Amino acid sequence: MDFEYSDKVNELRRKLQAFMDAYVIPNRETFEQQIAESGDPHFYPPILEELKAKARAEGLWNLFLPDDEYGAGLTNLEYAPLAEIMGRVEWSSEIFNCNAPDTGNMEIFAQFGTEEQKKQWLEPLLEGKIRSGYAMTEPGVSSSDPINLQFTIKREGDEYVLNGRKWWTTGASRERCQIFIVMGLTNPDNPIKHQRHTMVLVPRNTPGLTVLRNLSVMGYTHNDGHAELVFENVRVPVSNRLGDENAAFAISQARLGPGRIHHCMRSIGAASFALELMIKRATERSTYGSRLAEHGVIQNYIAESAIEIEQARLLTFKAAWTMDTIGKKAAMNQIAMIKVVAPRVHTNVVNRAIQVYGGEGISQDTPLAHMWATGRMMHLVDGPDEVHIRALARSLIKQASLAKAE
Amino acid sequence: MDFEYSDKVNELRRKLQAFMDAYVIPNRETFEQQIAESGDPHFYPPILEELKAKARAEGLWNLFLPDDEYGAGLTNLEYAPLAEIMGRVEWSSEIFNCNAPDTGNMEIFAQFGTEEQKKQWLEPLLEGKIRSGYAMTEPGVSSSDPINLQFTIKREGDEYVLNGRKWWTTGASRERCQIFIVMGLTNPDNPIKHQRHTMVLVPRNTPGLTVLRNLSVMGYTHNDGHAELVFENVRVPVSNRLGDENAAFAISQARLGPGRIHHCMRSIGAASFALELMIKRATERSTYGSRLAEHGVIQNYIAESAIEIEQARLLTFKAAWTMDTIGKKAAMNQIAMIKVVAPRVHTNVVNRAIQVYGGEGISQDTPLAHMWATGRMMHLVDGPDEVHIRALARSLIKQASLAKAE
Amino acid sequence: MDFEYSDKVNELRRKLQAFMDAYVIPNRETFEQQIAESGDPHFYPPILEELKAKARAEGLWNLFLPDDEYGAGLTNLEYAPLAEIMGRVEWSSEIFNCNAPDTGNMEIFAQFGTEEQKKQWLEPLLEGKIRSGYAMTEPGVSSSDPINLQFTIKREGDEYVLNGRKWWTTGASRERCQIFIVMGLTNPDNPIKHQRHTMVLVPRNTPGLTVLRNLSVMGYTHNDGHAELVFENVRVPVSNRLGDENAAFAISQARLGPGRIHHCMRSIGAASFALELMIKRATERSTYGSRLAEHGVIQNYIAESAIEIEQARLLTFKAAWTMDTIGKKAAMNQIAMIKVVAPRVHTNVVNRAIQVYGGEGISQDTPLAHMWATGRMMHLVDGPDEVHIRALARSLIKQASLAKAE
Amino acid sequence: MDFEYSDKVNELRRKLQAFMDAYVIPNRETFEQQIAESGDPHFYPPILEELKAKARAEGLWNLFLPDDEYGAGLTNLEYAPLAEIMGRVEWSSEIFNCNAPDTGNMEIFAQFGTEEQKKQWLEPLLEGKIRSGYAMTEPGVSSSDPINLQFTIKREGDEYVLNGRKWWTTGASRERCQIFIVMGLTNPDNPIKHQRHTMVLVPRNTPGLTVLRNLSVMGYTHNDGHAELVFENVRVPVSNRLGDENAAFAISQARLGPGRIHHCMRSIGAASFALELMIKRATERSTYGSRLAEHGVIQNYIAESAIEIEQARLLTFKAAWTMDTIGKKAAMNQIAMIKVVAPRVHTNVVNRAIQVYGGEGISQDTPLAHMWATGRMMHLVDGPDEVHIRALARSLIKQASLAKAE
Lengths: 406, 406, 406, 406
Description:
CATH superfamily of the largest domain in chain A: Butyryl-CoA Dehydrogenase, subunit A, domain 3
Largest interface: A-B, 48 and 48 residues
Order of helices and strands of chain A: HHHHHHEEEEEEEEHEEHHHHH
Number of strands of chain A: 10
Strand content of chain A: 15-25%
Number of helices of chain A: 12
Oligomer: homotetramer
Strand order of the largest sheet of chain A: 1-4-5-8
CATH topology of the largest domain in chain A: Butyryl-CoA Dehydrogenase, subunit A, domain 3
Shape of chain A: globular
Radius of gyration of chain A: 22 Å
CATH class of the largest domain in chain A: Mainly Alpha
CATH architecture of the largest domain in chain A: Up-down Bundle
Distance between the termini of chain A: 27 Å
Number of domains of chain A: 3
């Protein structure tokens, strides 16, 4: 269980950090401005394309992808500290073609896609030319228990006919999101509940598919967006199926592990950045005759934040290491743990930083308010905290029973 | 210490609740839509004027004002449950001419204004024809310790000359905010630190005054807004002074007590509404074979929320009662307590409700995300939590020392 | 909902506080010493008898009993602040014949006892000549769900035959505990689960009954004790039944409301005392160049403690008031709330005080360690926190459903 | 940063765990009984001597000592998981000669002792033949800020004369504690505050030294005890000085790092054991128709406990690793972090387990109540939590300032 950064990782960290400092941080305002000027919150700002080109030229591209052929060939443990650095700016992952849900989508295309599917969708995704959506969550049902999903995919001859609604399809609010991976019921009466659903590929311009609207996140409209989609008798050829019929849950599971590591490390990166800001502010301002940094309560905020961040980082490294060396199943409990811990650290630390900044902290003048909103979203993305706590507890109880039975 | 609602209060509660149900709740969307369609987030929507007329016609007007002549003549304890009802919809207080900061401003106009000032500003405020701003907080300094305030007001002959910046001036982003009460240093070298500042009235259109921009609140742009103001050699006649020279702190203190009761009761109203939504959702959705309402963790959220709300309400009643019957000074500790407690209950309960709603909770489809943002702001409005905790502790320690010395 | 102390209550508070200051606080050590010297932790120390005589002479006797004939005729709301004062010293309630479980036992004797039962047991209890036990909780089953209780009471002719074990029978470790109210299954197959159990009176010296051992509380051995009892074919006449057959749950419910108010107010009294000690210590000691009272973290402890205490007190008053004026059923939710809140305040505040006292706080040199242990016990007495949270949530959900259905 | 257990460590873990299972756990009752029967809580029970002999024979001896010559030659990281296993039974460390404060005392004897001091005291300590005390903390002053220490050590000719009081001298309540390392003021007027104190060795039977009394810990009397010592003109030869004059702080610092790792790992061991008990109980009992393990709130307790333990363990490993590979100074922040985290995990997890056990949890029938008391003590041992939080925050702020200045 060696968490030390290898020379290769340290070199990538150095390059990535330098890139962030040189090109991303100074362009935060440009990014916002280009979008604002376009009048369309989902406008794809030219600065993004510029930065993508630069990043790719420097070899900071597809870092997330463990596959040697398609990506950087890093393990989860090696990629983790890079995701942490990206987490400092909300929209930076896309610069390195490392943003969700495309990362997970590329993984399942690589793993389950036919050669044709790979050619048509994986290749342009790897190039960053198009984006993809993952349409699983549905309005009107508690999707945190996926058994509840109602969307139907019926086979008629050589076609699948899709009907229903999906929402929280991240990325879909931009036109460049060209392909959706859609999960729906193909065998609703199967007594094995986890073998009722299938994944099907639906191109954006397929008749019957409407990108209805964008969902805001705690008041923020994300540039890539989180869309609600309506499918009315949407027809695609059977060859658009991803993986086997009724195998959606298995594919979905395959996708989750690394994605959670990425999310968590970005959250830890956001929290670290907030802690830096907090300390900075605490040393610059004074009340009641002392610098904020000398007030016991502010010291408390700083120390508790550092403790939370350090622990969450080590735990995420362990989850990544376990996934890399033993496997996803062995890492399951650890992944549930970080899925609960990292969003908490994200919102806790940012929330304390906001309090240290006072009114400025809740305004547009610092990135903190937006960072908090993103952290809040992470308590729900890929299942609410409560679902992971439940799963973790049940797994621990089961393990204890098995140990006892031995 | 009788907290029971009198017949008069019950009658007002009934009327107010009926008004909210009949006219406010059903017009939430209209309110948002009229603003959105105008293209200006600070557009004054016609629905507001309509509802104000209706409310006034029903006698639901200036309920906050204890003064029999100008207002409803209610005590703080009597007004508290009405503020709670208004708290259910963010923008509803203005309908009843009960919104901050105009309430506090009207109070100090009534208490410290000259007859001319009352005629010119208090009367149209009481009519709801104009709005007013309270310009105290400054960018660039920790305004939670008001000794830090830097804004200067220099007397030159019969005029005051104002220079500096103010921000978080609530209401100022709408044109109809016609008058600002501005606090600044008139005697910066006074060894008595709390007698260095003066309050001066500045009409909106005074040369040299620029309403620079609006500040967003955790991603939300409020219709009335929170503005940053720039004062460059702004000149007003000496007769525009409110109260005595160097008496700004005393006036500011006079203004605070009731305002905090109002804020806290609105927070409690918001929390109660969130709890209702939480229970509603918990009874409508199911996961893992049970209604959410049957899950122990959700039951926990419901019970803890109810406990927090009930305690905060009683504490606020006690603060109001003490202020009404003994006086503001005697109520000081209790006001500090509710100032800490009510924003916590606001954010805690809304946050739990969001979690129960899942993705929908962070979106624009429920009022919860916006309610949370407002609650988060309340942790900073009128001083951050930490300042009130410090003041309360110091007061308790001092009281203990005095008791011991006796 | 008038919480103000009447003149009568203020007079009793003054007398009780004076009694505590003059006789109880100065005799804390004597109490401990007399027990220690006897070599028997359950020795009944003479100082207790002395203080009881004094208290009775001053009219500070049976204050808890709302019945005018037998007791002081105070309402729950009137008695509450008196219980708070008693809560400052762990063993003081008995001085005033106001200690659990005798208080609750006297209530049900008065309410459900036959004339003969009253004469034999209630009268000496009211005189403080004997003590009584309430044997409900059982080892080996989760008694927090009383349906689980296994103890059997079989009728054979004119006798009941009792078999089983009980524990946590408070008071039973002292010989002077002469009578046990025992709850057991008389109709185990009744489909109405809450009509299976009966209450039966068993004198201490009945053959077959063994007071097996005392249970310690977080390391402390209480003088009155919490005993484990074994019943082996214990026979009592049918006339020893308390109330109707299979009515144990109804009787048990009748007993609970006031008892919870008492417990909670004593917890609040303990917390208030701990806060006083905390402030005292914080003003006497210094670290790093400042008095502890000037450290932000210590100020935080003081302020948060005061806030918790004040809120818990008001909530308990409301529960008492509701019980007095509307009835137990109406007060049910509020009683559940205080049952959760008061033990928390008890342990939270004492825990902070311990931390301020450092090593001394965990030693025998302050009452804090013992106070904490008692507070910890209160999280479990009369059902664990979790059970009350569950009951409260279910009740709120049900109320919401009913409101909706109307 | 490799945290994986080496083969050597795994072999020691296996042996130690087997020893605990075979000899320690089954003798818990014997240990308590032998002490109880002796009538002296500080009686040295024969079972301890027996187990020590066995452990030594198996090579499970002085495992803590990194020194190859005197001890097992393990690094801190290697010893950490062994301390965790010992933490499962409160008194087990002594069996392996690994108990505080002897471990730290042996370390400073080895590092700072003269050959004669080593011969006289270190050797029998390494053999487990005697025990030693570390007399630093004083009654009457806030010893968490050691500058406050008042105890005087005056040089008179070839002797030191010691006067003052010490308390919380762990181990001293047993006769076999033969030597005290005593810290006192030798140069009280030194402007460099951390160079005023000296360490001096005082044998137990030195005239003028009284072991006054034992201090209990949250109601528990520990067998080795925590004593209060009175020194009245105690005279020892100058050769009894440990290290240089006025160097006590430096020596004290040298002692702290590893000791904190040991304490923290034992706390983590205790928490792990409590979690096992919690799960066990949750699977065995039922309420309201479900096993406790199926209740959401209990699942919450289990999952949160596992998350806390896992994070604390990784953090402690990191602190140990840093100390081993970079050095104590580099590990300073991490040691402060675990010093705050581990006692929290200890008390949090045990507290939840108690709640799951109900009344039994607070009684003598499980080890939980005693475990909690020990955990509570750990929030104060080696400085209260607040001191470490303050130190950590100040260090982080300083680091940030330095980084900025670069």
